[in-house]
């Protein structure tokens, strides 16, 4: 007698494959969304650290010369560099030049424009006591990428 063997089919049905693909897609979307938020928060942390470093060096400059640089190229600073532009003065005083570079755009951007966008650092002497290019206080600020809030660092004077 011949025995009939029933052949079992091996593999997955199309429905099972589709369910697995959908589940993997949902998990991938969740991971990518979370990862992008972490990157923005990390760049914001770097921006805060940069502003704190710049402020510390500006205070050291003030301790040496009795005023803050006015962020212009037209006057001679107390250290004799011929420029009070903080992107020129601060690296010569020990500030890491990377502290002046935006973590997202990769370019030096310390502005005196009040409409500084995401990642731009705003150095304001407006309203400060300034006479003859010698200013007695400053405000550093930047707009944070993750929530759009403004982080501000004021001078100690």
Biggest sheet, in brief?
A: 4 strands, mixed
Distance between the termini: 105 Å
State the helical fraction: 25-40%
Strand order of the largest sheet: 1-2-5-6
Number of helices: 2
State the total count of DSSP E strands: 6
How would you describe what is shown here?
This protein has one domain (14-154). By secondary structure, the protein is an alpha+beta fold. β5 (139-143) and β6 (150-154) form a beta hairpin. The strands form two sheets. Strands 1-2-5-6 form a four-stranded mixed sheet, covered by helices on one side. The chain has a two-stranded antiparallel ribbon with strand order 3-4. Helix content is 38%, strand content 13%. It has helices at residues 14-65, 86-92; strands spanning 110-111, 121-124, 130-131, 134-135, 139-143, 150-154. It has two helices and six strands, in the order ααββββββ.
Q: What are the SSEs and their pairings?
A:
Elements (H helix, E strand, L loop, with lengths): L13 H52 L20 H7 L17 E2 L9 E4 L5 E2 L2 E2 L3 E5 L6 E5 L3
Keywords:
single chain, alpha+beta, four-stranded mixed β-sheet, 157 residues, 13% strand
What's a quick, concise take on this entry?
This protein is of the alpha+beta class and 157 residues long. It has helices at 14-65, 86-92; strands at 110-111, 121-124, 130-131, 134-135, 139-143, 150-154. The strands form 2 sheets. It has a 4-stranded mixed sheet with strand order 1-2-5-6, covered by helices on one side. A two-stranded antiparallel sheet has the order 3-4.
């Amino acid at each position: 007698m011949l025995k009939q063997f029933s052949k079992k089919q091996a593999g997955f049905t199309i429905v099972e494959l589709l369910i697995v693909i959908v589940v993997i897609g949902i998990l991938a979307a969740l991971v990518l969304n979370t990862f992008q938020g972490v990157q923005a928060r990390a760049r914001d942390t770097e921006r805060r650290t940069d502003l704190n470093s710049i402020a510390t060096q500006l205070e050291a400059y003030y301790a040496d010369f009795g005023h803050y640089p006015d962020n212009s190229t037209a006057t001679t600073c107390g250290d004799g560099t011929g420029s009070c532009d903080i992107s020129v003065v601060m690296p010569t005083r020990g500030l890491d030049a990377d502290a002046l570079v935006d973590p997202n755009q990769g370019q030096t951007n310390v502005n005196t424009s009040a409409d500084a966008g995401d990642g731009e650092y705003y150095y304001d002497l407006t309203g400060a006591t300034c006479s003859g290019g010698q200013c007695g206080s400053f405000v550093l600020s930047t707009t944070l990428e993750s929530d759009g809030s403004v982080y501000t660092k004021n001078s100690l004077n």
